[in-house]
Structure formats: structure tokens, C-alpha cells
Specification:
The chain is α+β, with helices and mostly antiparallel strands. Helix content is 24%, strand content 47%. The longest helix is centred in the first third of the chain and has 14 residues, at 19-32.
Amino acid sequence: MTKLRDYEVTVIVNAELDDESRSGLIEKISNMITHGEGEEAKPVGSHWGRRQMAYPIRKQADGFYLFFDAKLDGTKISEIERVMNYDENILRYLFVRKES
């Protein structure tokens, strides 16, 4: 059995998405970082909303910021990052392991 660790996941998505597309993308991201079945397996997320970025990314000056507290298997992060890299609406992401 692999050890689950606590991570903070920050994601910046394209702020130009309509509400329905953004909700679908947030659900997709949440499902990617869910470690199993049940409510305790789901990440705790908060939406920081649309904010101006320090510098443009893909000609976007604003981004919609998402923050998740999640329990993840560290070996799965590279696969999640690979999927996020191919989604053009995800501008940036960051996985940070919390101290135990």
C-alpha cells in the first residue's frame, strides 16, 4: 500500500472561460487529484477567483485561481502533471507537499 501525503495544489486556469466550461474544468481537476472513493478522499477546494497575474501567460493577463488541500500518492503526481500540461485552459499548476 502506498503512503498518502498531504499536498497543497494551486492551479491557474484561463479566466476567459464561461462559467459552465470553468465548472467542468474544476470538476476534472478535482477528480484527477482524488485519491479514492468517499467524501474523505475528495480534495478540499477553494476558489480565489479571477486575479491579475504578475506577468502574462499565453497572452493572458488574468487567471482564475484554484486552491486544493488533497491527500495524494506522490508517485501519481507526474501522471497528473502530464494531463494538466496537455490542457490548454490550465495555465499553471503547483504541487507542494505539506510538512508532517
